[in-house]
Amino acid sequence: MNPLWLLRMARWARHPPPLSRILLVLAVVGVCVLLWAVEQVWGWPDWLTPERAGGRIVR
After folding, report:
1. Which UniProt keywords are given for this protein, alphabetically ordered (predicted)?
2. pTM for the full predicted model
3. What is the domain range of residue 33?
């Protein structure tokens, strides 16, 4: 483990992030888990699958 991570963890232990940031992170993780669960139950729709256009990557 990088020593900078240890310093970051020590700083978080002394000064924890505000509750609003913790709730934001939990909400983002919850949305990701929800999307994963929907994909597992119903599958990924074909119309959302990207396709190559003439062998080139369209950007």
Report:
1. Membrane, Transmembrane, Transmembrane helix
2. 0.61
3. 3-48
